[in-house]
Structures are given as C-alpha cells and as structure tokens.
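Before the break, one more example. Copy the sequence into your notebook; we will annotate it together after we see the structure.
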Amino acid sequence: MKKKWVYYVIITLILSISFHLLIVYYFPRILMIGAALRIKDRFGVDKNQLLNNEPVNAESKKIVMPSPDLLYSGISFDVSRHPLLIMAPVPTNTYWSMSMYDYDTNNFFVIDDRDIPGKKLVAVLIGPDDAVPDRKDAIVVRAPEDQGIILFRMLIVDRNNIAELQKFQRGITCSALK
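Here is what the structure looks like once it is written out:
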C-alpha cells in the first residue's frame, strides 16, 4: 500500500510540473499565434497589413476585452524576410500609443503621443538578426523574434470626433523596407 501511495505522489508531481510548464511557457504563445491567425481568417488581413477596428460597442468584440473609450488598429507582423517601415500621423488632442508584442505576449516596445516629435511617427521594425538600417528619420526597433503583433490605440474623448480619429487611423501605413 505504501509503494502505491509514493507512486501516486510522484505521478501527481510530474503531471503538476508538466501542466505548469505548459501553461506558463506555451499558453501565451498559443494565444498570440491564435490572435494572428484570427486576424487573417476573420478579417482577411495578411501579415504586415493594417487592420483598423471600428469603435467598440455592445455588439462588437473583435479583440479580447476591448475598451469602448479606445479606437484600435493592429498589425500582425513578420520581419523574417525584410524590415517594416511603419508611419503614423499622431493626433494632438488625445492620447495615442503604439505597442509591440512578441508571441510570448511580452511588450518589447511602446511609444505614445508625448514621445513623438513632429506628431508623425516614423519607425523601422527589424528582426532579431537584422543589421540596423541607417535611418536618421526613424526610430529603429529590434523585435526579439520575427513575428508578433503591433497595437495602436487612440483615446476617444468625444464620440462626436470619431470621424476625425478614424482619419488618423487610416493614415497608418506599414510597408516592406527593402
């Protein structure tokens, strides 16, 4: 009977450790890969293309836990073949930010409206092994891995100005830097 008890304890420990590692190390990556696949499947937006979301309301839930006070845009990026040139006009009368995440959900870069001189963002996103391009006009960001997600957010201060914010949203571009 005692041997059986030890056997069950060992099996329980092995299973507990295995599930812990699975959840801590692999679940975030599976979640982000799933988000990138949903962007392509549900919205027909390929890697390195911009997806602009409409303002959030009770019927819309394109992203997990969206805030109705924010206007979202996103890019599922892949810099394995070439760096990306990202340009975005930045509004002066509301909060604006761009955040970059790797597939482990780590936020490796963030910038907001207060950090951008001239109110136009010019950024180059390079892969982990890419040479740094000689771009004096751009912020160069090195991604820790070749794929991830970029999320843009704009605060909707006045719902009557959504059309104006959507002009800024449509002004965001992402193109290959060759």
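The helical segments are 2-43, 162-170. The longest helix spans residues 2-43. Try to locate both features in your own notes.
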